[in-house]
Amino acid sequence: QKEVEQNSGPLSVPEGAIASLNCTYSDRGSQSFFWYRQYSGKSPELIMFIYSNGDKEDGRFTAQLNKASQYVSLLIRDSQPSDSATYLCAVNRGSNTGKLIFGQGTTLQVKP
Amino acid sequence: GAGVSQSPSNKVTEKGKDVELRCDPISGHTALYWYRQRLGQGLEFLIYFQGNSAPDKSGLPSDRFSAERTGESVSTLTIQRTQQEDSAVYLCASSLGPGTYEQYFGPGTRLTVT
């Protein structure tokens, strides 16, 4: 079992729809969770981070964390073609290490 | 302000040669990380520096890989006797502190070993 798992996709949604990206992790001691967006040929760009159970909203993005289910998700409202990219979920196990464990990423396609 | 910078942006080398990759973190960031991303894959952790503490080298794939950092500034990642499987994008990131702080990535160095 991979430590951080994501469906590779592609996830295809029409413009204006809500895109829902999911990630599960295996280490119950994980403390912080990050979503990065990566355009083809570019480096990852941080878009959201979440530490506590529940929802965290930033503009069109909402991160959701459920530690009991070891599940973190990213919702993108009013999806735009410019949101088409690979979304990487990353998990940090705790304050003693800076190491991020990344999932393989989910490719999102937003169709006009 | 300036982000993380890396050089060179592209490097093509022959199998068996040594290469050095450089990373300049965001000013004031005490933590620095190196990751590797093979084509179509996620990121693999390589090494982590935090201030003057001993680095976490747990992700280095072999003893051909080494990295140094002087204080809280520039870091270099050295790969000796390069192999074709070393071909990847090498990404550097920095953060304000250790642990749960957000990491910001540089543009990466694309290494091709022929």
Task: Provide structural commentary.
The complex is a heterodimer of chains A (112) and B (114). By secondary structure, chain A is mainly beta. Helix content of chain A is 0%, strand content 54%. In chain A, the strands form 2 sheets. In chain A, strands 2, 4, 5, 9, 10 and 11 form a 6-stranded mixed sheet that branches. In chain A, strand 6 (54-58) and strand 7 (61-66) form a beta hairpin. Chain A is globular. The N and C termini of chain A lie far apart (36 Å). With 114 residues, chain B is an all-beta fold. Helix content of chain B is 0%, strand content 46%. Chain B is globular, with a radius of gyration of 13 Å. The A-B interface holds A 31-32, 34, 36, 42-46, 49, 51, 88, 90, 92, 94-105 and B 31, 33, 35, 41-45, 48, 50, 56, 58-59, 89, 91, 95, 98-108.
Short characterization:
Chain A is mainly β. Chain A has strands at 4-5, 11-14, 19-25, 32-38, 45-50, 54-58, 61-66, 71-76, 85-92, 100-102, 106-111.
* H/E topology pattern of chain B: EEEEEEEEEE
Instruction: Count every beta strand of chain A, where a strand is a DSSP E run of 2 or more residues.
Output: 11
Please give the count of helices of chain B: 0
Number of strands of chain B: 10
User: For the terminal residues of chain A, how far apart are their CA atoms?
Assistant: 36 Å
From the N-terminal CA to the C-terminal CA of chain B, the straight-line distance is 37 Å
Order of helices and strands of chain A: EEEEEEEEEEE
Main sheet properties of chain A: 6 strands, mixed
Number of helices of chain A: 0
Percentage of residues in strands of chain A: over 45%
Sheet/helix structural class of chain B: mainly beta
Largest sheet of chain B: 6 strands, mixed
- Oligomeric organization of the protein chains: heterodimer
Helix content of chain B: under 10%
Helix content of chain A: under 10%
Chain pair with largest interface: A-B, 26 and 27 residues
Low-confidence stretches of chain A: none
For the residues shown, what is the average pLDDT of chain B?
A: 93
